[in-house]
From TrEMBL:
Domain ABC transmembrane type-1 intervals: 17-304
Domain of life: Bacteria
Transmembrane parts of this sequence: 15-36, 48-68, 139-155, 160-179, 247-268
Keywords for the protein's UniProt record, in alphabetical order: ATP-binding, Cell membrane, Membrane, Nucleotide-binding, Transmembrane, Transmembrane helix, Transport
Protein name per its UniProtKB record: ABC transporter ATP-binding protein
A single Gene Ontology CC term: plasma membrane
InterPro entries referenced in this protein's UniProt entry, alphabetically: AAA+_ATPase, ABC1_TM_dom, ABC1_TM_sf, ABC_transporter-like_ATP-bd, ABC_transporter-like_CS, P-loop_NTPase, Type_1_exporter
Organism (species): Candidatus Sungbacteria bacterium RIFCSPLOWO2_01_FULL_47_10
């Protein structure tokens, strides 16, 4: 709820319009019950001439339908339009906040979480706010106003009626609140299992080619069935609790309605209430039941929505593993000298990958990191990019400790060509231009020519405006690699990292691109 409150604060005027409109609508609805009382009292009054009765009834009807209904319609429209603006903007703000937070998390965070699960958590956060806002505005707030209004009317007619309803409402709210709190743990468990099943499903579909190659459709179906089976069990449990709660609620309503009617009959028999009072009592009780009937479900929906949002809220409350120092400065790279000084690092406390390593790469020098798998070659590169913080030692670029500069300014000076290139589901032009967002079309084409990908791009029906598909699946591995190299050429940063950048190229294309790479590496500090 704190996350939601934080995002509601920038919209005080809109929230105020919604609040006042809800109050006005609820009060006008109860005013209708008071006019019904006057109507019945007028009908049953034998002491008034027929002409006066008819005139009074017409006046009441005009006031009721012309004034009360008209105002109610107007405030409903204020409420509706204000709510549209309110919810869509806050949902947008929540998703932006969630994305901004995710972008700040470390590389390790994303290796430990399913992408599909993270996407679902972002969407759930905004949808949870929509559900909570709808239920608070459309149910809880009108219910609170209706309870106050009904109690005021009953106390006005006779204090005994007011006390009976007050005791019942207090007991009802306390009971349902406790039930909701007790059920919350199952809602949280269900939301977590739902995210898990989504992650498993996303993992299966992402690796569909591998599944077909190894004929593992049956295995994956069994894996997903096991996960969804747990989710089904939790759904059955929570829904059963909800149904039992609804039955209890209906029974409590029958009891209070009977009690108030019996007391009202006694008061009428004593001459303390009129027929109009009966109409008033029954109408306001029905209005209260209409509001309160959904109370249990509303509370459950709110807690279920909060449970759905809890996954993303937990991430929002998780400190970023790698953060800029409060006094971080922007990195300025002139020559591109790289130094590792007594650097220790390990992904686990019990196993070190780098142990007091020291390394100096002179400006413009080309260095190849050679070693067996797991020797730490990729780790050196990831530490230079500051994907992880080191427990001891220093990494310097032109004498600047990378821990003391902003992460963005550090990475703006390093071009990285990975072994497994992944592209955005955008056009080829946009993917290449990602290296330099303000690059002209001519610069994009020039970079593509140097990377030897201009010819195959030009042969496509839409050329540079061709969409490459999710992760670039519409291109071959070699084509994706050349597009990534073109991006690095366009970026033209002082430090270059090539992680087996030609591994996906055939011998003919590799020989063509070596010249472009040599041109790219000129006057740059390069790690291969």
């Amino acid at each position: 709820m704190l996350v939601f409150k934080k995002h509601v604060r920038p919209y005080p005027k809109t929230a105020g319009i919604i609040f006042l409109s809800i109050i006005a609508v609820s009060v006008l609805e109860m005013a209708g019950a008071w006019y019904s009382k006057k109507l019945f009292d007028m009908f049953t009054n034998q002491n008034l001439p027929r002409e006066i009765v008819i005139t009074s009834l017409v006046a009441i009807a005009i006031a009721f339908y012309g004034y009360i209904k008209g105002l109610g319609w107007m405030f409903h429209r204020f409420w509706g339009f204000a709510n549209i603006y309110f919810e869509v903007h806050i949902m947008k703000d929540l998703e932006i906040t969630a994305l901004e937070n995710l972008l700040g998390h470390s590389y390790r965070f994303f290796t430990n979480n399913f992408t599909g699960s993270l996407v679902r958590k972002v969407r759930r956060l905004s949808r949870a706010f929509e559900d909570v806002a709808d239920n608070v505005e459309g149910n809880l707030l009108p219910l609170a106003i209706t309870i106050v209004g009904v109690l005021a009317m009953l106390f006005h007619r006779h204090f005994v009626l007011g006390i009976i309803l007050l005791v019942w409402v207090g007991g009802f709210v306390i009971l349902y609140y406790r039930i909701a709190i007790w059920k919350l743990k199952y809602d949280l468990e269900k939301a977590e299992k739902d995210s898990e099943s989504t992650g498993v499903l996303s993992d299966i579909l992402t690796n569909i080619v591998t599944i077909k190659l190894f004929a593992r459709s049956g295995y994956e179906k069994e894996r997903f069935t096991k996960t969804i089976g747990e989710l089904t069990r939790l759904r059955f449990k929570t829904w059963t609790i909800s149904t039992v709660t609804d039955a209890l609620q209906g029974l409590l309503m029958i009891i209070i309605n009977a009690a108030i009617v019996l007391v009202a009959l006694r008061l009428w028999n004593e001459g303390r209430l009129t027929i109009g009072d009966f109409a008033l009592i029954e109408e306001v009780i029905l209005a209260l039941f209409h509001r309160i009937w959904d109370f249990g479900r509303v509370v459950r929906r709110i807690y279920e929505s909060l449970a759905d949002a809890s996954g993303m809220v937990e991430i929002l409350n998780t400190p970023h593993e790698v953060e800029d120092h409060p006094d971080a400065t922007s990195m300025r790279v002139g020559e591109g000298k790289i130094e590792f000084k007594h650097v220790d690092f390990g992904f686990h406390d019990t196993k070190k990958i780098l142990d007091a390593i020291s390394l100096t790469i002179a400006p413009g020098e080309k260095v190849a990191l050679v070693g067996s798998s797991g020797a730490g070659k990729t780790t050196v590169v990831s530490l230079l990019e500051r994907f992880h913080d080191i427990p001891s030692g220093e990494i310097l670029i032109d004498g600047q400790n990378i821990a003391g500069v902003t992460q963005d300014s550090l990475r703006q000076n390093i071009s990285f060509v990975p072994q497994e290139p992944i592209l955005f589901h955008q056009t080829l032009k946009e993917n290449i231009r990602y290296g330099k967002l303000d690059a002209a079309d001519e610069e994009v084409v020039e970079a593509a020519q140097k990377a030897r990908c201009h010819d195959f791009i030009s042969s496509l029906p839409c050329g540079y405006d061709t969409f490459v598909g999710e992760r670039g699946v519409k291109l071959s591995g070699g084509e994706r690699q050349r597009v990534v190299i073109a991006r690095a050429i366009l970026a033209n940063k002082p430090i270059l990292i090539l992680d087996e950048a030609t591994s996906s190229l055939d011998s003919e294309v590799e020989s063509l691109i070596q010249e472009a790479l040599r041109e790219l590496m000129k006057s740059k500090t390069t790690i291969v």
